[in-house]
C-alpha cells in the first residue's frame, strides 16, 4: 500500500516536519509540502482552477493512503491545511470524477501541539470530511511538543500508531 503525507505547517523543519521524519524512519511515504504549492482560498466562481490544487490532488490520488500532517494552530488544523480542505469542494463540483477516486482511499492524521492533549474539536473535521468524501478514516497520532521535537519522547506513540494502521 502506498502512502502520501500532505504537510501543512508554517515552519519548515519544525515539529510537524520532524514528526514526519520520524515516521519515515519506519515506513515509506512520499511527502508533499503545501509550502511548495500555490493554492488559493476556495472560490465559488472557480476562477482559481489553474492554481496548484488540481496538480497536487492528481498526485495525491496515485496513493492508497493519505496522511494529513499539521500542527494545532488555535485548536484547529493549520491555515494552509484548511485552505486545502476547503478546496476539496472543487472535487464535488467541477472535478467530480477526481472526487470519486477519493472513495477508494484511506487517511489518517499526524499532529503536533504544545498542550498535553489536542482539543476534542481538532480531530472532528478530519473524521467528518473523510466520511463525507467516502474515505476510510483510520486514526490520529498527536505528539505534545515543547520548544524542540524530542524523537525519543514520541517513538513509542509513533510505533503504536503505525501498528494500528491497516498497512
Ligand atoms: C499560530 C499558532 C497557534 C497555536 N495554537 C496552538 C493550540 O491551539 N494548541 C496547542 O496545543 N498548540 C498551539 N500552538 C503550538 C504549536 O501547535 C506547536 O508548537 C507545534 O508543535 C508547532 O508545529 P510546527 O513547528 O510544525 O509549526 C500554536 C502555535 C502557533 C504558531
From TrEMBL:
SUPFAM superfamilies: Flavoproteins. Residues 1-114 form the NADPH-dependent FMN reductase-like domain. It comes from the Bacteria. InterPro entries: Flavoprotein-like_sf, FMN_Rdtase-like_dom, ISF_SsuE-like. It holds the Pfam family FMN_red. Keywords: Flavoprotein, FMN. PANTHER family: NAD(P)H-DEPENDENT FMN-CONTAINING OXIDOREDUCTASE YWQN-RELATED. This is NADPH-dependent FMN reductase-like domain-containing protein. It comes from Thalassotalea profundi. The lineage of its organism: Bacteria, Pseudomonadati, Pseudomonadota, Gammaproteobacteria, Alteromonadales.
Amino acid at each position: 500500500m502506498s502512502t502520501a503525507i500532505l504537510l501543512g505547517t508554517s515552519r519548515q523543519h519544525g515539529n510537524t516536519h520532524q514528526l514526519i521524519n520520524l515516521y519515515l524512519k519506519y515506513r515509506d511515504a512520499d511527502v508533499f509540502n503545501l509550502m511548495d504549492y500555490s493554492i488559493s482560498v476556495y472560490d465559488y466562481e472557480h476562477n482559481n482552477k489553474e492554481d496548484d490544487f488540481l496538480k497536487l490532488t492528481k498526485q495525491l490520488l496515485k496513493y492508497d493512503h493519505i496522511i494529513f500532517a499539521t500542527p494545532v494552530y488555535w485548536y484547529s488544523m493549520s491555515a494552509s491545511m484548511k485552505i486545502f480542505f476547503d478546496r476539496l469542494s472543487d472535487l464535488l463540483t467541477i472535478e467530480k470524477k477526481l472526487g470519486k477516486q477519493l472513495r477508494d482511499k484511506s487517511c489518517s492524521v499526524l499532529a503536533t501541539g504544545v498542550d498535553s492533549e489536542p482539543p476534542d474539536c481538532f480531530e472532528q473535521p478530519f473524521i467528518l470530511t473523510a466520511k463525507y468524501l467516502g474515505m476510510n478514516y483510520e486514526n490520529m497520532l498527536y505528539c505534545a511538543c515543547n520548544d524542540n521535537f524530542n524523537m525519543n519522547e514520541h517513538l513509542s506513540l509513533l510505533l503504536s500508531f503505525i501498528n494500528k494502521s491497516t498497512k
